[in-house]
């Protein structure tokens, strides 16, 4: 009798263990599916977000290409008609940093590097007076974007960039003045946020030969 009960209890325990194992397995499968579904959804969301960003960048690039085409067409017409009056872009830099040291000056115009200065003596000259870092005659009329990139050495080396958008007009010289100095309220020049680059521009009407 006791042997029968023991055998029966053993079978019941085995069945309960099997049922518990099945339930646990089902829970694990369900949990895994939920995680996979969540991961898949997260991946899809990231993919959609990346696609939206890419589409936005493509649209901006299309607009930039369209603006460039218009500017080139105007420039081409001016050359063909013989009415080119000499647009001009000139950029100067004055270094007012106290302890930080500029090691390199780069000028990027509309995405292309057009000037790169590494000469130490020339860079040091910017401590005394503003120096010419870019000069372009017969620039294409229209909107332009310039990035002034300074490689600066403090306790470490980093790059500090200032982006500036401006218009170039026919017969007008655009003169841009950039100044590197301590950021407002900063007493030390160690981190990138301790350093500031300010900029302003002025337009000067060019005098043609006929007006001289």
Structural domain count: 2
Classified by CATH, the class of the largest domain is Mainly Beta
What spatial order of strands do you see in the largest sheet?
A: 4-1-7-8
User: Helical content, roughly?
Assistant: 40-55%
* Percent strand: 35-45%
List the topology elements.
Elements lengths: L1 H80 L6 E8 L5 E9 L2 E6 L2 H9 L2 E7 L4 E12 L3 E12 L3 E11 L12 E11 L7
Parallel strand pairs: 1-7
Antiparallel strand pairs: 1-4, 2-3, 2-5, 5-6, 7-8
Structure description:
With 212 residues, this protein is of the alpha+beta class. The chain folds into two domains: 1-84; 88-211, Immunoglobulin-like (Sandwich). It contains two helices and eight strands; from the N terminus they run αβββαβββββ. It has helices at 2-81, 120-128, and strands spanning 88-95, 101-109, 112-117, 131-137, 142-153, 157-168, 172-182, 195-205. β5 and β6 (157-168) form a beta hairpin. The protein is flat, with a radius of gyration of 33 Å. The N and C termini lie far apart (129 Å).
What does this entry show, briefly?
With 212 residues, the protein is of the alpha+beta class. Residues 1-12 have low confidence and may be disordered.
List descriptors.
212 residues, alpha+beta, 2 helices, four-stranded mixed sheet, 2 domains, Immunoglobulin-like, disordered N terminus, four-stranded antiparallel sheet, single chain
